[in-house]
Amino acid sequence: MEQLINDLKVQIKEALHLEELQLEDFDENTPLFGEDGIGLDSIDILEIVVLLEKEYGIRMSNPKEGKAIFHSVRTIAEYVQKVKSE
Amino acid sequence: MNSVSITGFGIICAIGNDAAAVLSSLQEQRTGIAPMRYLDSIHKGKLPVGEVKLSNEEMKGMLGLDENAIVSRTVLMGAIAIRQALNLNDQTTKRPNDSIKGKRIVVISGTTVGGMDITERYFQQMQEGDALLPLIEKHAPGSSTREMACLAGLKDAEVCTVSTACSSAVNAIILGSEMLRNDEADIVIAGGTEALSRFHLNGFGSLMLLDGECCRPFDKTRAGLNLGEGAAFVVLQKNSSSSSGEAGRGLYIRGYANRCDAFHQTASSENGEGAYLAMSEALQMAGLKPQDIQYINAHGTGTPNNDSSESAAIRRVFREHIPPVSSTKGFTGHATSASGAIETVICILALQHNFLPVNLGWKEQDEACITPFKNSKLINSWMSLAPRRDCSRGTKFKISGSEKEFKISNILCNSFGFGGNDSALVISQEPSDFAQNMPVEVEVLADERISDVEQLSDYREFISPGEARRMTRLMKAAIITSLKALRHAGIESPDAIITATAYGMLETSEKFLIDMLENGEETLSPTLFMQSTHNTLSSAIAIRTNCHGYNITYSQGKDSLDWALRDARRLIASGKAKTVLVGCHDEATPTFQSLFSRMGKPIPPALTSRSIVLTHNPHNS
C-alpha cells in the first residue's frame, strides 16, 4: 500500500505538472480538490482517470460516479488496490 | 431602410446533402446519427456519429475534382454548401453568373479543425518523405477557406476564417453582417464547415463528453454529445429599400451578439452568464422583446453541463415568456464549428415553411433544464396558453375561428463554444433598420511584444505557479503581453478581446496528435485537447481579465492581424466597445519548422506575441 501511495504521488505530480509541489510535502490524506487542499479541478480528475488506465489498466467510464475515489491520494490507492484484487 | 438580407443558403449535414433533404428529415423526424461509416477510427461500431452520408470520392465527383486529389473533407463539404448557396448546382458551372461581377465579395468561414483530417492521415508520411510535404500548408483553417472559395469560382473574393470553436459559424455570420453594415462588402457568403476527425473525436472523448447512445439534449438522462459534421453557408446582402412593404418579404439577420462566459476553458457557468448576455443583447439589437420570439434553436449539445447552463440562461432572459425551444443536435449530431451555420439554415427552413423542429431524444424532465419542444402535435396545447402569455401583444398568434394558426416570424439561434465563446442570432421575416457606422480615428494606447522564449523568464509577475502548470510558452507569452499592454493603457478589463493566430496552439495540438498516432486513440490527455483550439488564448485572456465582452479569434494566415484590427475599428466605430485588446500570437514547434525548412519556405519563428490596446481618439474625428 505504501509503495502504491508513493508511486501515485510521483505519477500524479508528473501528469499534472505540479512542479512546485515537493513530494515530501505531498500528504496522501490532503484533499486533492478545493482550496483547502492541493487545488485541483475537474480536468485534473480526467487526467487522473487517464493515468489510472495507462499505469494500472483500470478503466472508468463515468468519473462522476466515483467522486469519492478522487478525494485524496490515499482514497485513489485504496480504489486501485480494491480493483486489482477483484 | 438598411438591413441585412439572406438571399441564399446551402447545407450539407447528417440529415441531408441539400436543403430539401434536410427539410424532409426535420419534418419527418428522421435522425442522421448512425453507426460510424466513413471515419477511420477504432471507435467504429461503438460511437454513433452524425456523418455526412457521402465518401470523399463522391464529394470530389460532385465538385468535378479528380478522385485522387488530396482535398480535406472540411473543404469538400464547405465548397458544396457554398455552391448550393450561390445556386451553382451543376458541376460544370464553374463560376457564379455575371450578376455578381464587379461586386465586393467576401467568403467568411468558421472552422477549427481545418485540414486536420489531412494532417492526421499524412503526418508521418510528411515527416518521412518529401512527396506529401506541401500538405502541411492545408493544415491551417485559413487555407481551407481559400480553397473552398476557389472551388466555388470565387478565387478573387476576400476570404476570412473565424475560429471560436463550436460558435465559429455564427460568429462568421455576425462578421459578415457587420461588414455589410459598414459597407465593406456587397455580397457576403458566411457560414462554417467541419469534418469529423479522429483528433477531435478523441479529444471530446478524453473530456468524457461523448455519449455512446444517441444524444438526448435537455433530458434528465443525457450523458453527452454525438459528434457530427457538415457545412452550411448563407448569402447575405445589404437591402437598401425606401419602402418597408417591399423589404417585408424575405428573411433577415435582425440581431446578434457575441459575448464571453469568461468562466472555464471547457465548462459553462452555472447561471449561463455568457449565454444570457449574448441572448439579451441580440434581442435588444433586433428591437424585440422575449414574447416576440416564437422559437429558440438551442445550442443544446446533450452534455449535462451545457444543457443546464443554457436552460438557466434562457430562463433568465425569457422568464414567463419561454417560447418553444429545441436542440436539433439529435438530428445532426454536434457539427462543432459548423453547427451554428447548420442551425441557422434549419431556422431559415423553419421560417420559410412555418414549422418547429422537434427535440429528438427527449423523454424525461430534468428540473435543471427547460422543457424542450418534442412533439409537433403539442403545439396546440402550447398555443392554448399563448393568448394569455401574450395578452399585451396579441398580434403574433393568429387565431381564426376554431383553427389556431401558429406563425413563426422571429427565431433566436444560440451557438456556444469552448472558452465560453457564446453567440446568438435573431433571424426574422421582418428587417430592422440599422445606421451605418461613421469612420472614427483609433488611438493605440499600448503595444507590447515578445519575440523570444527568453523573455518569458519573468512570467511569475503575471502568472501564478498554479496557473503556469498547464500553460504552454505561447499561452504564457499571450498572457504576459496582454497584461502588460492593459497595465500600460491603465485598463483592468477591456470591452472586447480580439485574437489573431495563423496556426494556433501548435505545441499542444502536435503533442496530442503524436500521442494519438503513436499510442492509439485511447488514454489521450484532456488537458492537451482542451488547449488545442485556436480560441484557447482569447478565452484564457478573457477569464484572466474577467471580460464578458465581445471575444473572437481570427485565423487567416498572415492576414489574421489585419482582420483583427479591422474588427477592432468596427467595434469602436459602432460604439460597442471603447477599449479593445487586440493580440497576435503564434508559435512554431521544431517539427513544424523543419517541415517548412525542407520545403524551402521561410521558417516561422518559434514564438511571437504582440498585444495592442486600442481606443477611440475623440480629437481626430
Structural class of chain B, please?
alpha/beta
- The CATH H-level homologous superfamily of chain A: ACP-like
Low-confidence stretches of chain A: none
- CATH architecture assignment of chain A: Orthogonal Bundle
Rg of chain B: 23 Å
**Overall helicity of chain B:** 25-40%
Largest sheet of chain B: 10 strands, mixed
Residues in β-strands, percent of chain B:
15-25%
Describe the largest sheet of chain A. Answer: none
Helical element count of chain A? 3
Q: Give the class-level CATH name of chain A.
A: Mainly Alpha
Spell the H/E element sequence of chain A. Answer: HHH
- Tell me the distance between the termini of chain B: 26 Å
Coarse structural class of chain A: mainly alpha
Number of helices of chain B: 20
Q: Could you explain the architecture of this structure?
A:
The complex is a heterodimer of chains A (86) and B (621). With 86 residues, chain A is mostly helical. In chain A, 49% of the residues lie in helices and 0% in strands. Chain A has one domain: Orthogonal Bundle (Non-ribosomal Peptide Synthetase Peptidyl Carrier Protein, Chain A), CATH 1.10.1200. Chain A contains three helices and no strands. The model of chain A has no long low-confidence stretch (mean pLDDT 90). By secondary structure, chain B is an alpha/beta fold. Chain B is 35% helix and 19% strand. In chain B, helix 2 (56-62) packs parallel to helix 3 (73-85). Chain A binds chain B through residues 16-20, 39, 42-43, 46-47, 49-50, 53-54, 62-63, and chain B through 206-208, 265-267, 465-466, 469-470, 522-527, 530.
Which key terms come to mind for this protein?
heterodimer, A: 86 residues, mainly alpha, Non-ribosomal Peptide Synthetase Peptidyl Carrier Protein, Chain A, B: 621 residues, alpha/beta, ten-stranded mixed β-sheet, 20 helices, 19 strands
